[in-house]
Amino acid sequence: SLYSTVIRRQIRLGRYKNTLASDYQQAIKKADNKYLFRIKRLLASMTERDIKAFQTNRKTQRAEQLRKLLDQWTGAYKAAIKVPMATGYDEIYRAEKNAIPGKKVKDVDKPPRLIMGKTLPAITATSAKKFRDYTDTRVKQAMADSLDPYLALEGSKEIGYRDGAVSARDRSADAWIASAIFAGAATGRKIAYKERDIEKQQWLATLDDRTCVICGSRDGQAFDIDESPEQPAHTNCRCVYIPDVETPTARRGALIGDDVRQAYTVPSKTTYKQWLSMQNETVQKEILGKTRFELYTKGKLNLDKFVDSETGLKYTLDDLETLEKEAFSKL
Q1: Tens digits of residue pLDDT in 257-287
Q2: Of 31, 98, 213, 231, most Cβ neighbours within 10 A?
Q3: Across the chain, how many H-helices and E-strands are there?
Q4: 306 has pLDDT over 70
Q5: CA separation for the pair 42, 53 (Å, rounded)
Q6: Which residues lie closer than 8 Å to 90 by C-beta, 6 or more apart?
Q7: Cβ neighbour number for residue 255 with a 10 Å cutoff
Q8: pTM confidence score
Q9: 300 with 324: CB under 8 angstroms?
Q10: 3-state SS assignment for residue 118
Q11: Are 191 and 198 in contact (CB under 8 A)?
Q12: Which CB contacts under 8 angstroms, 24+ apart, belong to 159-162?
């Protein structure tokens, strides 16, 4: 069936992501080897005057050299992440568009390449700027605390370098590469559905405690093909659209934590809202947070009311307080 075809292919995308992430790591490792060596040597030569100048955004020769090296390093990161994101989106778009079974009745033009509503150049530019700002902040903070600023970039060997700017950068890159792949897949399937005159598609979320309120509130909803909220909804989103043309008779999987070996199944018609209602208080509170959990268990607001139906954005706690008062006034 279309349903099982889409689910099977969605699961395989994770393996492809690992391949592209490996390509990114090879490219960025070359840049790190090149620039971190120069940065380390320059930091070791900086005087107190140079350090003060860098911290206060004033100029000395070495302070300017450090800024330039950080800029160049950031540029190398921007180039390194752009390639796997573009490759992942385009290749998966073509693969998923052509993988959907069924007779094609018309041709639909390829839409603009968007990832969570943004173009690829905009994403890479924003990601690079955040990385550049982060390195600046980390180095300045280390200097102010009389710590080795180089460790703020590379990280500490004792904990596997996980505390450095490099590690934070690479976690972000991994999430963006995955987002590009899943965006390409979602768009490819959407075009394939339209070419087969499928008018609606259904949002399918993952049933576990990592699923966000936004995705959970959309689980099981059918949307007009041209008015569907974009997927992925956020970085590390695991949702998928299935064609809303059949009622699957199989059971759908649900997870306990991150361990797929602890997966279990529930009837295919089970939505995230129903799954959440079956969980114990500890799990519900961990997913929703204290305030939302209290509103949820008191029956004052259901899961749908935690998210703006028009924008798809999660309401703030102040927004929820207003909604609670409005709901109470109607009783």
Answers
A1: 555 445 667 777 788 888 888 888 888 888 8
A2: 231
A3: 11, 7
A4: no
A5: 14
A6: 113, 184
A7: 17
A8: 0.83
A9: yes
A10: strand
A11: no
A12: none
